[in-house]
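Q: I have two molecules that I believe assemble together. Could you output structure tokens for the complex as a whole instead of separate predictions?
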Amino acid sequence: MSWKLDKNRPVCPQITEQICVKIASGEYGAGEKLPSVREVAVAAGVNPNTVQKSFEQLEQSGVIYSVRGSGNFVSDDITIAKQSANEIITNKTANYIEEMRNLGLDKEQILKYVEELIK
Amino acid sequence: MSVLLRCEGITKRYTNVVALDNLDLTVESGKIIGLLGPNGSGKTTLIKLINGLLQANSGSITVCGNKPGVESKKVVSYLPDNNFLNSWMTVEQIVNMFADFYEDFRKDLAYEMLSRLAIEPTCKLKTLSKGNKEKVSLILVMSRNARLYVLDEPIAGVDPATRDYIISTIINNYNPEASVIISTHLISDIEEVLDEVIFIKQGRLVLQKSVDEIREENGKSVDALFREVFKW
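A: Yes, here they are, computed for all two components at once.
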């Protein structure tokens, strides 16, 4: 999965969210070593200080831990990453539903479109 | 974190025009900073003052504690906004010249970037396209181990793929001891790479803020805010 950033939102929380999503989806497994700050910065095309800040926030919330001299690792317990990924997914789905309702669709119609296109 | 650049109350007048008007600016180490402003707002004047190519009418500038001059030029790597290289020289000769000039020049890095961008070192500069000349200039400037990089419009003349390469070069070269000042109009291409942006309007500093603060407070990109602040 690549890094997709919304230009109208601050960069730091987006990096934090996407790392959580990558952990929840298994792209970065529990206990696995994360790419370095520089690698993430280059891959996402963002400022290294911003990535550093995201890593610090993730460490504070227990999603990852850092080992001096050898880098950052995904925590063995990925519950928090999953929770936060879940929140993002819920928000995105809610946004989608609202947009569809604004287009005048009811529940049945929305489900029908999803059902048809999801295959 | 140390202060790399300090400008205090700089005023620069050209005969009838005030290009910079009592401008204060401090740049700390470890930052990538966007110097943004419309045409004629004073960006290039400020950059030339930092590099000692112009003298301010009043105010003071220090780079790592020194006034612009021999000592400051050892630690500032400057990309001018127009071609500054001799076009009859080959790329290789220019690389050697830079290596002679600057103690902190890294030839290996220069050759690595030249080969990555498929520029033949034996070519004379005048045989290269405009975009390739700009790439050579930028490679030379980025191949130094400087404290302060001052890039005047580094990405305007190159294609989008090269732009991406330049941006990733800037990120890769990131060093907590050094800072990069980039003047540009192409804000949306580069804003995510920046720590901070500086808006200059008619020679005055109107804003110095982090990109994330701007996005948080305004709910829009720096590019969108720029278009609003500088709307005609």
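A: One point stands out. The first helix of chain B runs from residue 43 to 50.
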